[in-house]
Design goal:
Blueprint: E1 2-3, E2 10-19, E3 22-24, E4 27-29, E5 32-43, E6 48-55, E7 62-69, E8 72-79, E9 84-91, H1 108-114
Antiparallel strand pairs: 1-2, 2-5, 3-4, 4-7, 5-6, 6-9, 7-8
Length: about 120
């Protein structure tokens, strides 16, 4: 996460997911990868939060695998459509500061025992 301004109220995130090729049982699974990104804005003294998130920006999250059975090669290319764009808005009502009252234990013996 990187702040885009001095006030640190605009935050940008960019990430990359990569799963190495591997063998799972009879399946030889190819590498899987995708890029995701997001931006968050803190407004109105950080009470209003706007965020925009995008997943699988380049539509590359495919599950590709190959199975060899009885000298026949089966190849699968599954795309589960993990690409999305999400807009979220949240607002925090009330005070940020919470007053904590000191409470007395009614039983003095219990209080002494705990010490």
């Amino acid at each position: 996460m990187t702040s885009l301004n001095k006030k640190r109220n605009i935050i940008f995130n960019l990430g990359f997911y990569y799963e190495f090729p591997h063998i799972d049982g009879y399946n030889t699974i190819q590498a899987t990868y995708y890029v995701y990104s997001g931006i968050k804005m803190l407004l109105l003294k950080e009470k209003l939060i706007l965020s925009l998130t995008a997943n699988d920006l380049f539509r590359t999250d495919h599950a590709k695998s190959t199975v060899l059975s009885n000298n026949i090669r089966y190849t699968f290319d599954n795309y589960g459509d993990t690409q999305y764009l999400r807009l979220a808005v949240s607002y925090r009502f009330g005070n940020k500061l919470v007053r904590v009252e000191k409470r007395n234990v009614s039983n003095e013996d219990e209080r002494e025992r705990v010490r």
